Amino acid sequence: MSWLPLSFGVPIVLWGLLALPVIWWLLRLTPPKPQTEVFPPLKILARVLKREETPHQSPWWLTLLRLLMAALVVTALAEPVFNPREKLPAEGSALALVIDNDWASAADWSKRVATAQRLIADASSNGVPVVIAFTAEKPNAEIGPFDAATALDRLRAAKPRPIPTDRPAIYARVAAALERLPGASVAVLADGLAAQGDEAAFNTLLSKNAARLVWATSDRLSLTGLTVADNQVDGFALTAIRAPNDPAPAQVTAGAFDDKGRRIADATLTFSPGESTATGTMAVPFELRNDFASIALDGEHQAGAVRVLDESSKRRRVGLLSQAEADQAQPLLSPLYYIRRALQPFADLVEPSSVDLADAIPQLLDQKPAMIVMADVGTIPEQVKQRLVDWVDKGGTLVRFAGSRLAAAGNDDDLLPVRLRTGERSMGGALSWTTPQPVTEFPKSGPFADLAPPAEVTVTRQVLAEPTPDIVERTWATLADGTPLVTGLKKGKGTLVLFHVTPEATWSNLPISGSFVEMLRRIVQLSRNQGAAIANAEAAATSLAPYRMIAADGELVPPTPDARPLVPGAGPLPVTFENPPGLYGSETGVFAHNLLEADSTFALLDRPQISLPVTTVQYAFDESRNLKGALVAAALVLMVLDTLAVFWMGGLLARRPRRAAATTAAAVLIALGALLGHADLARADDAKPGDAQAIEDIAKTRIAYVLTGEPGVDSISRAGLEGLTRFLIEKTALEPGAPAGVDIAKDELSFYPLIYWPIDPAAPMPSQAAIARVDAYMQQGGTVLFDTRDQFANGIGADSTSPATERLRDILGDLNVPPLEPVPSDHVLTKSFFILPEFPGRFAGSPLWVEASLDASNTENRPVRVGDGVSPILITANDFAGAWAVDENGDPLLPTVPADPMQRIYALRAGVNIMMYMLTGNYKSDQVHVPVLLERLGQ
């Protein structure tokens, strides 16, 4: 039952509200607890004659408070829900959840996830499994069936992909999974865009074992995509598309960004009423247009609204030069006519104002062109030749066309790719034995490798190249008889190119063919992208590594682990899971791989017409709110108020202020007495120098080390104890303070349970008084860990000892040292925290010496030996501090010998066992008596 906007999960509980009158009646008849007060005798006598009154019912406000509390509890048990949502049909044998997570779903992905969560929640309440599949994932991804919790985890882990959907493959997998689940509910969360093969995909999905369809869509498809970003003569031409279901006019703003993400230009595109295509031009100077790295539509957070640009989108300035006089009456005979027509769509053309080469060439170079085209230019003046050579060496591209002037000029090795024979070759004339030659297949090593040879092109005259060993490598196009038609050569950072025919249709019909335009465009691309990954046909045949990818939300991000190298080729390249949209290549040159093609359009996805029951829902967030928790919290607050009211009526709260007042009065009297000089209220200050430091030392357990006076030894000791302290904090409940360096001659030693003493023969010998202080420390329960650090310093033989061992003997000679033995296998040290058979440090092999056991043979009553006391002395030669020492980042300072990573771990564990042994003593030994104690207690 429900009353909008409120509903109840268990409405039958609301009948409990009928009990409120009974509760009211009971509360009215139950008086509050009488208030008890202690009065002075005179006040009691004064009230003897007064009539005693006892309340017979509780106050009305307390009754109302308790009735309200009971009503809140009853209402909360009915599980009220504010703004309840409609329960979605997720019953049957299973729920098949098919979700589009392509680029078109990125803008409202959170709404789609919320809708899918409601479907999974309803399936969970019905106890049915969930098959969940995403149409923009790998075809072999696991789809279930899963339980509701696992399905929710997979839903939360999913994200939109910047690629189109693959509905046929995914729908076929879901249909195969439903073969074992007849009568399932199928929920399709579509992106609203139609794709090729959708009808067959839906037939496959809904033809087997589907009992119901839940169709979830957006209220309207409001996608806008960018299909064209073409760098033309007057600006960047842009084309945007939208869904055909929006008849209203609209405007979108496109922004151009450089390679650092800075916005450098804008343009507005307008959709006319009923139109799904909008065009516009970003009119900025071509120097600024060449800095464009990407163009994106404002407000469109999806991959279809972004286009990345590569070198093919950048226009280059091309200089044109010819020695022939222009004939305005016959423009088709001009040497530059066909070159202008071929280059104008994708280059900015400049020409000199002078016909004199000495002036014309500097005029062109001053405008910094990327390429210069010379139509039948013969001898180049010496005063400008070197400047032109330097321009080519620095990266310029010089393209020359043959003609009578070049044929008569002879060779110019610096500005021609090959050496030429004097004169020209004529074919097909009355006095020639040869016929006009066609063009054959383009060499694979040239930039025209992937172009088809023009079958209609023939050559009647040409200039010939001198045959040289490298003539084949320099040939970019050949005739049928093997003579070069186009030759090229890399010179420095630039390129030299020679067409062995004229640029007008006199020696050949090549200038009036479509191949001529494509060949010039390829050369312009070569000049734009010198040294880039796609600058020539060899690189075009190789794979390009992912460089920057377009994410589903339109942001440029680093390559994902799933991205694979792209192999450019002829024709459009598909956008796939392995090749998402973005830039491929490297910093030296990139290839733009965009999501939408120039002819892309948006088509609406229609709901499949089927005979199954269909439920249509809109993507939306779940706005329902469960009020049970809020009502229970309100009831608890009222319960606290009721308790305080009962305390107040019982007089409990009334007596506390009096006690507080009495305490305050006493405090005031004491303060006044102190001010008036009452000596009996004052206390003498018995603080002594050093008390603050002593309190700080005993506030936390700290490990101490002896200051030897050697800086290197003391720094390793401190770093070692810091490393052990970190390990103790990480592995145990003990949290020691910072290690303390102590001077055994002056500092108080009793504050520390363990003192680490590295023996160094170079350090001065401690005085007798200092050794006596150490002896008193050991007699009072402290432990000193002596470390000679000389495991590999002792020589061969029983009498061969190191200087450190000799120094230790001198120190121990003045101490009351008990009998020592290596740690036995059953000693408490071997199991105080970790189970350790040995105690290595930076070195391994030396035993750890401890106080010898008094009753080593009695293993029945004391399986763990030396448990009643702690050994006052420990001796090792394994350099514990060297193994424990770490730097500020926690990295080890010194290597272990041998270089075994586990040796350092065992050394730290040995330090933990020693500290546990110091602090617990007989704890581990007493644990063996637990069974006997439990038996005596009757457990």
Automatic annotation (TrEMBL):
Residue ranges occupied by any DUF4159 domain in the UniProt entry: 702-919
Protein name in UniProt: DUF4159 domain-containing protein
UniProt keyword list: Membrane, Transmembrane, Transmembrane helix
Residues in Aerotolerance regulator N-terminal domain copies: 6-80
Pfam assignment, any one: DUF4159
SUPFAM superfamilies reported for this sequence: Class I glutamine amidotransferase-like (SSF52317)
Residues spanning the membrane: 6-27, 630-653, 660-679
Keyword match Transmembrane helix: yes
Keyword Kinase tagged: no
Organism: Mesorhizobium amorphae CCNWGS0123
InterPro entries: Aerotolerance_reg_N, Class_I_gatase-like, Double_TM_dom, DUF4159
Domain of life: Bacteria
